[in-house]
Amino acid sequence: MKDCVFCKIVAGEIPSAKVYEDGEIVVFKDIAPLAKVHLLCVPKEHYARLSELNGERKRVLADAAEKIASLAPSWGLGEGYRLVVNQGESAGQTVPHLHIHILGGETLGWEK
Ligand code: 5GP
Ligand code: ZN
Fold first, then answer.
1. What DSSP state is assigned to residue 100?
2. What is the pLDDT at residue 1?
3. Alpha-carbon separation of residue 98 from 19, 31, 49, 91, 106 (angstroms)
4. 16 lines ligand 1 (CB under 6 A)
5. Count of alpha carbons within 13 Å of 106, Cβ hemisphere only?
6. Is 99 a catalytic residue?
7. Ligand 2 centroid, distance to 96 Cα (angstroms)
8. Cβ(14) to ligand 1 under 6 A?
9. Where are the domains of the chain?
10. CA of 30 to the centre of ligand 1 (A)
11. Helix and strand element counts for the chain (H, E)
12. Which CATH number does 5-79+88-104 carry?
C-alpha cells in the first residue's frame, strides 16, 4: 500500500535491519527499541488489524508464531520473550500495518 512504512520496508524501499525473511513475513529490528532485543514481525500482505483476519491471514500468523518460536534463540531470546500486538490508537498502534512486537534479551517488567 502506498505511503505505508512497513510496506516500504517489505519492498526494500526503506532500509531495515532484517533478521529473517521468507515469502510471507519479514522480521526486522525496531528503529526505537524498547528492550535490548526489539524486533517487529510483519506479514508481507498489507492489512491494519486483527479484525481484518481471513483464512489465509490466520494461517500466515499461525506459521509466523511457529517461526518466531523456532528462531527466537538465534535472536538472543533463548531465555524468553514477549509478543505484543497493538490494536488501535488507544493501544498505541502508530503503524496501520499489522505487526507483532518481539521483545526480550533482558528481564522484562510488566506495565500497561
Ligand atoms: P506500533 O506503535 O504501531 O505498535 O509499533 C510501530 C513500531 O514501528 C514502533 O515501535 C516504531 O519504533 C517502529 N517503526 C516505525 N517506523 C519504523 C521504521 O521506519 N523502521 C523500523 N525499523 N521501525 C519503525
Ligand atoms: Zn503496509
1. E
2. 80
3. 18, 16, 6, 13, 25
4. yes
5. 9
6. yes
7. 7
8. yes
9. 5-79+88-104
10. 6
11. 2, 5
12. 3.30.428.10
